[in-house]
Amino acid sequence: MLRYISIYISAFLISFSSLASAQQNALPKRIQVNYAVTKNGLPFAKVREQFVITGNTYQVESVTKGIGIYALFGERQLTSQGNVNRLGLKPRRFELQQGRDEKHSLIADFDWPNKMLHMTVKGTVKEEALTSGVQDLASYPYQFMFLPKPLKNKFLLKMTTGKKLNLYEYKISNSKEVLKIAGTQYNTLHLAQVANQTSSKLDSKDLWLSVDRYYLPVRLVIVDDNGQKLEQTLTELHAE
């Protein structure tokens, strides 16, 4: 009996591994997206991103350029590099650079063997315990495509901003929402951030993922503690 159970479990694991591998092979190896960002309804910035998979590694590059007076803050550049496995993206290093001042840079190094996250802020290193599934600001939008489908009920996102390691909980809408963006119609899944009862912060973040386009975010709305609203909307998408 134990022998048959062992054979059954082995067959299941092989089937699961094959399914995961087939799903990954069906995903694009290169994605380029552009976004327009508004602040309280007025033009604020433009975002250009590129996601590339090479073998079992990935790289994300994201550049945000302010519009008008906001251009004086300089470009914000995000980069994430790491590996790709059956669970998706496994970051190794994340960097954020705001303008040319190195004082405005953030670095996060993922030490998976020792399960430690090292975050460097203004030359000071802060450490946090590293658990499976942690993403960063640049990698998380591209992790959704690797998750088992359908996404439903709720989703927990562990993510580093380069300064902190945070846990976000999202409630997933039971029904799809149709959004018309830049002349294109998208069937989307709405993820609404659940308020953290232990935090005094009143900020919120909502995501709309395109179910037909690799679950990439096509709309993002952030409302901060002061009621300032940032809305990021897809303007262009290329995948191959």
How does this model look, in words?
This protein is mainly β and about 240 residues long. It has a single domain, classed as outer membrane lipoprotein receptor (LolB), chain A (Clam), CATH 2.50.20. Helix content is about 10%, strand content about 55%. The chain has one helix at about 1-25; strands spanning about 30-40, 40-55, 55-65, 75-85, 90-100, 105-110, 115-120, 125-130, 135, 155-160, 165-170, 175-180, 185-195, 205-210, 215-225, 230-240. The N and C termini lie far apart (about 50 Å). The model is unreliable at about 1-20 (pLDDT under 50).
Give the topology string: H per helix, E per strand: HEEEEEEEEEEEEEEEE
Label the overall shape: globular
Q: Any guess at the CATH architecture?
A: Clam
Main sheet properties: 16 strands, mixed
- The amount of helix comes to 10-25%
Alpha plus pi helix count:
1
CATH class: Mainly Beta
Q: What's the mean pLDDT score?
A: 88
Give me the count of strands.
16
Q: How far apart are the first and last residues' alpha carbons, in Å?
A: 48 Å
Number of domains: 1
Uncertain runs are 1-22
Strand content: over 45%
- Taking Cα atoms only, what radius of gyration do you get, to the nearest Å? 19 Å
Instruction: Assign the CATH topology.
Output: outer membrane lipoprotein receptor (LolB), chain A
The assigned structural class equals: mainly beta
